[in-house]
Design brief:
140 residues, mainly alpha, 2 domains, 4 helices, 0% strand, flat
Amino acid sequence: MISESPLSRNPAGRSGLLDNVLGLLSAVVQFFEVRFAVLAQESKSAALQLLILVGCVIAALALCVMGYVFLIVSAVVGIAHLLGTSWPVVALVVALLHFIIAGVLLLVARSRITKPMFQDTVDELKKDREWLKTLNQSTS
């Protein structure tokens, strides 16, 4: 009869249950170490991409605000030139117009905030609470 060598029966090269369990745990730990190393590397790359994205968005918003200011200044000067008045008078009117629009937008926002959100969900939760109260009273 041909006998098998110990290495062919146990490819891990270990014998016994304890050695096999330790080998399995070691392999699992190595598996997760490698995965966490890859995750750490990718998270650094993702953080850099996110930082660049946030920087670009902030710069774009700043440029839009500056462009808006220059547009308003140009409009004020142009309207003052067309009307033949001084630009501070036109700038004052434009500023008042902006304050009025801002006030209207704040009133709209205030009216939206006073309306409760998720009203259907709140109503369903109230019904569930009432049902649970009646359930507890009927089982007592």
